[in-house]
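Z., the sequence and structure:
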Amino acid sequence: SSPDPVFPRWGILLNTGYLKTVFLPSLLNQYAGSESIGWIVRDESGDPLVMKQETLTAGLVMQTSFHDRFPPWILEFHEEDPSLLKALFFSRRSIYVYIFFLIGFVLIFGLSLTYRTVHQEMELTRIKTDFVTAVSHDFKNPLTSIRQLSEMLKAGRVPTEEKRRQYYHAIVEQSDRLKFMVSNIVDYARMEKGTRALNFEMINPGPLVRRVAAEARNRFLNTDFTIQAKISTRLPFIRGDAAALQQALNNLIDNAVKFSDDKQRVDVKAVWRNGEIVISVQDWGIGIDAGDQEKIFRDFYRVKSPGTRKIKGSGLGLTLVRQIAHAHHGRIQVQSEPGKGSTFTLILPCDKKSPMKEKG
């Protein structure tokens, strides 16, 4: 019979080939195109008709059927199992991981800072204790000598005039020793604070070095030490503070005497080399290990070796020498070998504006 003209019939003819190869892949990739989401379209027997390429290894998340007007196919969505790294750092819950690491970092940083601060405080306390002990010992010896000699002179127990002169000389020598140690401590503190004003003027270095060497010979007159001075006859003038340079040289000579061991000899030399005044103080004593040669110029540093345990000192002498050398735009160097002695060299720039030289 002919179709009813009043009630027409409509329908859709599905091209399953086009549906599988073009329409569904395009639609699903558009709305489920994430790299972590895969999909599979299966027929009624469960065989895959079309799928996203990497879906086979992904875990099943959801399964549904198409509308009854479509072929009896099944649509599956799969989501790839995230790796541990992605789960920790690229998921929505990764903020908690970041917070955990931030708290851990703050705790570790705080602990390390606390440890460093406590360690520095303990080291500073140890250095202060060692300094006070060393200074007290250094002060005790000359004060004890002065007191004993003074009591003997006061009680009239010195039999001869020659002995009295020796005792008077010893008292003056020990007093000068005390003055020297006090000056070192006070001048170190002033230079650290920048309150020590140096009086720069034109200085003839030859007579200055000779005077320091002569005073050192007088200080150690009652000992077996030999202090020799070799100064070039023509040295350019330098611009500096005579008192500060004299103090630096006295510290170097005093150090050389303390660490001379059995060979009691100190050589003081001054030459003009490469436009600079080079003043060296050499001894043949216990020497310094290579690892300590840079450290000895630090504040309060003392070499820890069997040969230095019985030698007392504040640890400020070489620090003060370095400060004075830098204040004169110069430098201090050391060459040493354990058991063969040390040579400390003070290098000072010449005054370029002055052609004056010492005449022999």
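The chain has a mean pLDDT of 79. Residues 77 and 359 are 104 Å apart (CA to CA).

Let me know what you think.
H.
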